[in-house]
Write a structure and sequence with these properties.
Blueprint: H1 2-44
Length: 51
């Protein structure tokens, strides 16, 4: 019984790590895309880049 519990706990831990990594990658790509869009909007309105 203990081995079965340990195996399931390990599977759950691996699944949680994979899920966390994929969510982190998605958040990072969204953040980078949002920053790029913000710069494009700023420049399209005739403003220069902030110094």
């Amino acid at each position: 019984m203990t081995r079965r519990f340990a195996r399931y706990a390990l599977y759950l831990l691996v699944l949680a790590a994979i899920l966390d990594a994929s969510l982190h990658r998605k958040r990072k790509s969204t953040r980078v895309r949002s920053q790029h869009e913000a710069l494009m909007t700023w420049e399209d309105e005739g403003g220069g880049l902030p110094t």
